[in-house]
Request: fold
Amino acid sequence: MDEHAPGRRIGVTEAVPVDVDFPDLGCWARGNVGIPYVWRFAAKSRGPRVTIQALTHGNEVCGAIAIDWLLRQRVRPSGGSLTLVFANVDAYRTFDSSTPFASRCLDDDFNRLWDPPVLNSARRSRELDRARVLRPIYDATDVLLDLHSMTEASPPLALAGRHRKGVELARALGMPRDIVVDTGHRAGKRLRDYAGFDEPDDARNALLVECGQHWMPASACVAKQSMLRFLRHCDIVDRAVLDAHIDAAPLPAQRVIDITDVVTIESPSFEFVLPVHGMMSVAKAGTLLAHDGARDIRTPYDDCVLLMPAQRPKPGETAVRLGRYVE
Reply:
């Protein structure tokens, strides 16, 4: 690869097609637990407390499509409880196809707030206020599925956190193919890593699924299939109901990617020096990837995998994660 090939600077924007319909979520606004856009259904028999979340980011519509479908199907648990959350609906309502990335959040990234010192602080923002309202939902959750999507077209990913239990949950779904073992972001803690979800000896567990590019129809299909397989694994819904909608086609064998480096942007002049894309593998250690001011970013080892390189990053945010396949 030519180290001097044209790259991509912070602030570059591209026209991106929006090929999915955004569901009208107004009919779910009242919720049924005293929190807007939160629905909980409980069975008489005991079982795990399961939560599925969409719209952690306001422009990531695939999870909203999946949960809207599940609610309209009137799926109910046969044991335990099922809670369905549309998280950042205020940001979702601002979506404009002419500026489709602007509605990711309003004030804060909702998925960087999940550290008790932040949640307990006097700081205020619209996302932080919503996080505090929703916090009791997550505190009462045994197993969480958080449905996301990505800026660029990339194969789906299961972000399993840093412990074995997360990998086991991803393997129980059987999809997506690539399971990512990582510690999150320097900019703040993800919901997937909140409290007991991130404790290796705690029975509570969580999985974040990146379903594909934000507005591709295939991403909504991945979200729905991941959700159905998650419910089947949790064993709280009649299996025949789920199997009627689960794609029976064989799935490829899963593989695990261990994230060894998270590149956090330090300079407003950050620039990739070669064309990058998600799941790209760089063959040689020491290959120059980017300039971050005076700092050079190079691959730390051979066959380095680039995960979710940011197209519109800001200083303090993650530019790219570097990993390698492991057994």
Notes: The chain is about 20% helix and 25% strand. Residues 153 and 213 are 5 Å apart (CA to CA). The helical segments are 62-72, 89-92, 116-119, 126-139, 164-173, 217-234, 239-243.
